[in-house]
C-alpha cells in the first residue's frame, strides 16, 4: 500500500493548488492507494527553517501573486488571491483553523476529512464557527497533535508548504516540495501514466 501524505496549511495558496492536483490523481493513479491530509502550521515551519514568509518579503509576495494566477490558469482552477492576503496571513490567528482541522481529523473518517479540507479551501470557514469550536480545539491533546504534525515536515527538512510525502511499500519515504511536482510524485509512485494537470 502506497500512502501519499499531504502536509498543508489552509492559509497557504500553494497548498490549495496541490490539494486540487492530488484530488485529480486519486482515481487516475492506482498506486496511490491512500491520500492522507495532515494539517500543520506554516508559520512554525518558516520559523524553524529561517525562511521568510512571502507576506514578509515584498519580492516573494509579488512573485507569488503572479505565479498563482499563472498556475491557476494553467491547471484550469478557480483561484484568486484574497485582497487582504498580507493582513490575513500576518494578523489572523493562523493556528485556529489548523487546530479546528486537527480536531475534526481525529474524529472523522479520511474521505470525509479530505472533502472538508476541499470545502474550506474553496469557501473558507467563518471565524464564528471556529470561535465556537475553540473549547475543543484548544485542548492540550489537540494542540499536541498539531505540534506533532508540524514537527514532521520540519524534521524532513521542510522550509514551506506544500510538502507531499510518498510512503512506499518498501518502507521508503520521499518528500517533494511545491505544487508543481506531480510528475515527480508519479515517478516516486512508479506510475507510467502522466498526471492529470488540467481538467
UniProtKB/TrEMBL annotation:
Identify the domain of life: Eukaryota
The DSBA-like thioredoxin domain covers 4-185
Q: Which GO terms describe its molecular function?
A: glutathione peroxidase activity; glutathione transferase activity
One BP annotation, GO: glutathione metabolic process
InterPro entries cross-referenced by the UniProt entry: DSBA-like_thioredoxin_dom, GST_Kappa/NadH, Thioredoxin-like_sf
A Pfam family this chain is assigned to: DSBA
Tell me which GO cellular component terms the UniProt record holds: mitochondrion; peroxisome
Give the transmembrane ranges: none
Against Gene3D superfamilies, the record matches this protein to:
Glutaredoxin
Cited PANTHER family = GLUTATHIONE S-TRANSFERASE KAPPA, GLUTATHIONE S-TRANSFERASE KAPPA 1
Q: What is this protein called?
A: DSBA-like thioredoxin domain-containing protein
